[in-house]
Amino acid sequence: MNLTLKVWRQQNAKAKGKVETYNVKDISPDSSFLEMMDILNEQLINNDIEPVAFDHDCREGICGMCSLYINGEAHGPDRKVTTCQLHMRMFKDGDTITIEPFRSAGFPVVKDLVVDRSAFDRIQQAGGYVSVNTSGNTQDANAIPIPKVDADKAFDAATCIGCGACVATCKNGSAMLFVSAKVSQFSLLPQGQVEKDRRVLNMVDQMDTEGFGNCTNTGACEVECPKGISLDNIARMNRDFLSASVLSKDK
Ligand code: SF4
Ligand code: FES
After folding, report:
1. What is d(CA 100, CA 92) in angstroms, rounded to the nearest whole number?
2. How far, in Å, CA of 40 to CA of 22, rounded?
3. Among 41, 65, 71, 225, which has the highest number of CB atoms less than 10 A from its own CB?
4. Closest ligand to Cα 124
5. pLDDT band for position 132 (cuts 50, 70, 90)
6. Do 127 and 81 sit in the same domain of this protein?
7. Are 84 and 61 in contact (CB under 8 A)?
8. Pocket of ligand 1 contains residue 176 by CB under 6 Å
9. How far is ligand 1, taken at its centre, from the CA of residue 48, in Å?
10. Ligand 1 proximity of 181 Cβ (cutoff 6 Å)
11. Are 123 and 87 within one domain?
12. Residue 136 belongs to what domain range?
């Protein structure tokens, strides 16, 4: 396949960015989108042009690092796949492909296609954990009965890889799908009950502090999420937040 690529180039966080046009030839339809980007970068290096900076790590849909906005969609035109799992067979020979970074006030551009998603780390640090007794008298996890339906929902929420596609897709730049997945994966389980109220209050507070927008239930985040995280998690988090807010006022 021969392709025209329109790629966002930006030297650093403060520099003004612009779109540069590159052509790549003989791309296999079986290659991944990131392999195509590797070929572009080899070509640029051979021509003494600085390669395009982009994020990646596992290249198998697990780490959440890859974060490209491709032809106006987070992770490109396929559904329930990350950019690293996107294959070039989704495009046609002769296509022009526009490649931009995830854009949101909460994700400032670092360079080219790399954005700073450390806001997600700070939200996690605000409550995305459970405290456990590691004294040696800890109860075996398998001894705690959990209804199958709750375990399944918690597991589904826990599949969020923190990629940020939900934020990049949302017209409000809301991080509610991500935060609600991280809250739900614990609030559905007995192990998450001790810190349940504190967790949801602190994580939502940190989300607001980071400058993410509010959810207006457009549902675009769910459509573009590579892990199919459900909007049900947002409804659950809103209920948990309301009840925790009322309880905290009663104290
Ligand atoms: S909810 Fe989906 S889109 Fe958002 S960070 Fe998690 S995996 Fe990515
Ligand atoms: S590089 Fe890890 S999810 Fe894409």
Report:
1. 19
2. 8
3. 225
4. 1
5. confident
6. no
7. yes
8. no
9. 36
10. yes
11. no
12. 118-250
The verdict on 169 and 186 lying in the same domain is yes
- Whether the pLDDT of residue 195 is over 80: the answer is yes
Confidence class for position 135, pLDDT limits 50, 70, 90: confident
Write out pLDDT tens, residues 56-109: 999 999 999 999 999 999 999 999 999 999 999 999 999 999 999 999 999 999
Among 92, 111, 130, the domain-final residue is: 111
164 touches ligand 1 (CB under 6 Å): yes
Rounded to whole angstroms, the Cα distance separating 17 from 177 reads 29
**Nearest bound ligand to the CA of residue 82:** 2
pLDDT in tens, 20-42: 999 999 999 999 999 999 999 99
Percent of the chain residues topping a pLDDT of 90: 92
* Count of structural domains within the chain: 2
Contact in structure between 137 and 123 (CB atoms under 8 Å): no
- Residue 140 to residue 191: CA distance in whole angstroms: 12
Of 82, 111, 140, the residue at which a domain comes to its end is: 111
Q: Does residue 240 share a domain with residue 155? A: yes
What's the CATH code of the domain at 166?
A: 1.10.1060.10
Indicate if 164 and 244 belong to the same structural domain.
Answer: yes
Which ligand is closest in space to the CA of residue 160?
A: 1
**Domain co-membership, 20 together with 70:** yes
Is the Cβ atom of 165 under 6 angstroms away from ligand 1?
A: yes
Is the CB of 178 within 6 Å of ligand 1?
yes
Give the distance (Å) from ligand 2 centre to CA of residue 55: 8
Per-residue pLDDT band for 249 (boundaries 50, 70, 90) equals: confident
Residues 6+ apart with CB under 8 A from 158: 181, 185
What is the spatial distance between Cα 51 and Cα 71, in angstroms, rounded to a whole number? 20
